[in-house]
Amino acid sequence: MGTIFGRQEPNQVSLSEHLGNDGGPPRFSSPYVPTRNKMTNPEDLPIMLYIPGIDGTGLAAFRQFPLLVEAFELHSLSVPTADRTDFVGIVEIIEDYLKIEINERANGRPVYLLGESFGGVLALVVAERCRELVDRVVLVNPATSYRQSYWPILGPIMPQIPEELYGAVPFVLAPVFGNPLALLAHNIDSTVPPERQLTSLAKGIADLFGTLNFLVDVLPPPVVAWKLELLKQGMDEVDKVLSKVQQRVLLVAGEGDWLLPSRSEAQRLQRLLPRCYTRVLPGRSHAVLQEAGVDLVEIMK
């Protein structure tokens, strides 16, 4: 389910529908957030296109969606697990969406691209190709540092792991993706009685294990191999455009990102991008948008 070009309103889908998208080509939809302030008309807000990381679902940012929909008319890209569109093909899908759907809707409103991890690579290439349509770019732990990480060596090994062991990989790597305590603390309110905090902690543990199980489902070994190929294609494309991106860029990096060298990459991109401002968040991991106490809208302000 995705937005159809030419429709008057973006197609709103629930989070489960958005994450469960497993058919057809990559497409955009507007996440339905029940808590959104109904007094705010999305058509009065700036427009944001969220481009997810390597899983292609938007799972890593869904805890930010309730905050983002109060500040933006939010459109989120979903790339189904079975899809095999190459890097340039995904760039062209985003570019066409900007030209056909967003350009018609914008009516003078600023347009933001929010790219997380692999989505940051896509966002930079799209921004350079769509200078007249994109006003701002926000990057969160962009995977532009892929070649400087250990993933070119470790990544190709993962699809070769026996299937009976592969299911345990996300659990072993959980501390690499994110700070487990910060992930678990997201739903805990320190002002409520201890027994309610314990209930929230139990829910947080269940949510975290559910997330890790979900990663096993959407990133089976053949998909991991394809995603790594996409990353390699993306590196070739993004290196050509870094010095040409003219939009203002806000780069948010987790100081404790063990998946990618995001802190040093923030310094490198600040030198290469003409108009780049960086925010390094102490103690934050690769899954920074999932961690408790992180409000991307406030960081952007």
Outline of the structure:
The protein has 13 helices and eight strands. With 301 residues, the protein is α/β, with parallel strands linked by helices. The model is unreliable at 1-9, 171-178, 180-186 and 197-206 (pLDDT under 50).
Question: Descriptors for this entry?
Answer:
about 300 residues; globular; AB_hydrolase_1; AB hydrolase-1 domain-containing protein; AB_hydrolase_fold
Give a written overview of the molecule.
With 301 residues, the protein is of the alpha/beta class. Helix content is 41%, strand content 14%. It contains 13 helices and 8 strands. Strands 1-2-4-3-5-6-7-8 form an 8-stranded mixed beta sheet, sandwiched between helices. Helix 2 (65-71) links the parallel strand 3 and strand 4. Helix 4 (118-129) packs parallel to helix 11 (221-238). It is globular and about 50 Å long. The two termini are 32 Å apart. Mean pLDDT is 79; it is low at 1-9, 171-178, 180-186 and 197-206.
* Radius of gyration over C-alpha positions, nearest whole angstrom: 18 Å
Low-confidence stretches: 1-9, 171-178, 180-186, 197-206
Number of strands: 8
Which structural class is indicated by helix and strand composition? alpha/beta
Write the layout of secondary structure elements.
Layout lengths: L11 E2 L1 H5 L7 E5 L15 E5 L13 H7 L1 E6 L8 H20 L4 E6 L1 H12 L6 E5 L10 H4 L8 H4 L2 H4 L1 H4 L2 H5 L9 H25 L2 H18 L9 E7 L7 H11 L3 E6 L14 H5 L1
Parallel strand pairs: 1-2, 3-4, 3-5, 5-6, 6-7, 7-8
Antiparallel strand pairs: 2-4
Helix pairs in contact: 3-4, 4-11
